[in-house]
Amino acid sequence: MPDSFRFDRLFIGGEWVEPLDGGVRPSIDPATGAPWGDVAWGGERDVDRAVAAAKEAFEGPWRKIPPWERAALLRKFADLYATRVDALAEIETRDNGRAVRESRGDIGMHAQYYHWFASLADKLGGRTIPMDDSVHAFTTRHPVGVVGAITPWNVPLMAAAWKLGAALAAGCTVVLKPAEQTPASSLALARLFDEAGFPPGVVNVVPGDGPVAGARLVAHPDVAKISFTGEGATAKTILKTGADTLTRCTFELGGKAPHIIFADADLDQAINAATGSAWALCGQSCALGSRVLVERPVYDRVVEAFRERAGRVRVGMPLDPATHMGPQAHRQQLDKTLSYVAIGRGEGAELVTGGARIDRDGLADGYFVEPTVFAGVSAAMRIAQEEIFGPVAALIPFDGEEEAIAIANATPYGLAAGLWSGDTGRAHRVAARIEAGMVWVNTYRYIRWSTPYGGVKASGWGRENGLEGLDPFLETKTTIVSTTGTFPDPFAS
Ligand code: NAI
Ligand code: MG
């Protein structure tokens, strides 16, 4: 464990405090199945303390700091973050098993997200609204208040960057509750906010159980907004929990992204993207192309390429820089993935390769699973409909544009989609008709600070990143000023 980071205290009101409710819990390394560190665990009273600190900071120093100084603090934080990428990547990899070559690449980009949000902090102007000469009407934009950020275990620091960067730039204060399986990196993040000189209470970090600490955060009357990434079922619970306090919510939920390969595509490039996206993060990301739709003339070639690539994926200890793919992030996810392999076989899909837990020497205690390919998948099968979150590619054949679009849209989800075609007209026609928050053409998973990210249908509410990323953290106030100061007596006649 890097010396400068410790995990056995909560970060509340600028202080490292012992939990009142939960004590410490071991965090499990999914590559070994064994604990690797003790992490502070907060309960309801700890969340209450954190919200009180965030409220005090919001009403006190944070509200008074001019936006360009908020921006400067965020930039300072971003620069500090950039110097700690290796240490943060190691912590995250320990907690969720993501291959360190991926963690470093991902975390290495986060400073740019914070810089992007910093660049927006002092540009949150309103507009003037054309009226007649008797009034001057204008809008101003104001932070909503205390934000509860609830994050998942697959990309804890990325989710934190998207939520905290935007919330802080907007002038909100934050209580961050990371996922049970991966709390450590968020506490490391708190240390960096502390070092960068953020006023006490602007950022607070409280790991804890979702139904306890998370639910308290949602129900707390002083929390104005919840920014959540995770499961759809949890989002529905959050809506109900937050109903009495009318808590605003944005949701980044699951996906079952179609990755469509037309026969006229540059197949080598399409296969690079489709295989990469099948097994990145051990399959544990909502935007991965877990459904690969392949036009029938090239279907067999693509299936063969997937089989061949699967054999080249180096599955191994995630801290080894040579490793391509680490374990599943926790035990339940391993079980879920293996159960979907059985479901796929039961539904009559052809298991081309993989599908088993890896029990070879050195990996048997971790949650490792083989890169897996199913062919002969039809759109209605459960493995083509439901989010597996494992390294399982489902290859679905199709004939022509219309069928590709129909299959692409035939799930409850609508987060992301990719398509490969050499025909520009077709690319536009198909992209326009896919129900998704993001469509990638002749590329895949191109995600940046400046491009809005989020889903339609069951994939979520609202957008993160881009210029739009700050909207959920702001209220618009309309001010109307009379230039005459006269108001007719309504009862004069
Ligand atoms: P989850 O939705 O249960 O957990 C996400 C976060 O919500 C965690 O911080 C958790 O503690 C918190 N939470 C849980 N119950 C809560 C409650 N009642 N009130 C407030 N907060 C609560 O997700 P889970 O169970 O870890 O993952 C299950 C599935 O969700 C995955 O297999 C995957 O399909 C999907 N998922 C999607 C993600 C995405 O990036 N869109 C990320 C993680 C999971
Ligand atoms: Mg859950």
TrEMBL record:
GO terms for molecular function: aldehyde dehydrogenase (NAD+) activity. This is Aldehyde dehydrogenase (NAD+). Keywords: Oxidoreductase. Its EC number is 1.2.1.3. PROSITE patterns: ALDEHYDE_DEHYDR_GLU. Gene3D superfamilies: Aldehyde Dehydrogenase, Chain A, domain 1, Aldehyde Dehydrogenase, Chain A, domain 2. Belongs to the aldehyde dehydrogenase family. PANTHER family: ALDEHYDE DEHYDROGENASE-RELATED. InterPro entries: Ald_DH/histidinol_DH (IPR016161), Ald_DH_C (IPR016163), Ald_DH_CS_GLU (IPR029510), Ald_DH_N (IPR016162), Aldehyde_DH_dom (IPR015590). It comes from Sphingopyxis panaciterrulae. The active site is at 252. Residues 23-478 form the Aldehyde dehydrogenase domain.
